[in-house]
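Board notes (copied after class):
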Amino acid sequence: MLNKFLLLLWALCFTASTQAAMTQFGSEQTIGLNKQGTPVFRSLDTPTVVTFWASWCPYCKKILPLLEGLQRKLGTDKIRIIVVNTREEGKLRQTRRTYKKFVKQFEKKGLQLEFVFDKKHALYNSLKKPGLPYTMVIDKHGKITYTKAGYSEQLAQPMLAAIQSVLSDNSAAKH
């Protein structure tokens, strides 16, 4: 019984310390690089949604249309949605080629999401490799209000609620 209690206490402490480290996302912190190789940062004017994805991940392919629909519906003046290509197989040159190939495909389709590349998986690894897809909702002040690894229809509802919450806070702050 005592062992179970200690194990539970250890798990709660580990979870709390991991989450505590991820409460803020600085305005100077690079999310990734755009296709020109320029660093991309979170928005200072609107909430930012950041989702890490990889081309081999079936759940990543399911969340991208949802995010695209949100970006189209809400517009870039209300929210900035950035999808970060990471954890592709191969060496850096090969993973960069994979990223550029997908950017071309997404541009041909007229997708409005902002696609960036996580060079050497720097940001993803700093998050302790949380799984894919991995989504963060960040308010305009840099506070991380939601994080979740994975995707399913059941997981979409809390994510959408978190996005709605930061949008409500953002519009209330403007008035």
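Comment from the instructor: The beta strands are 32-33, 39-40, 48-53, 80-85, 114-117, 134-138, 144-149. Helices lie at 2-21, 58-74, 92-108, 122-126, 153-174.
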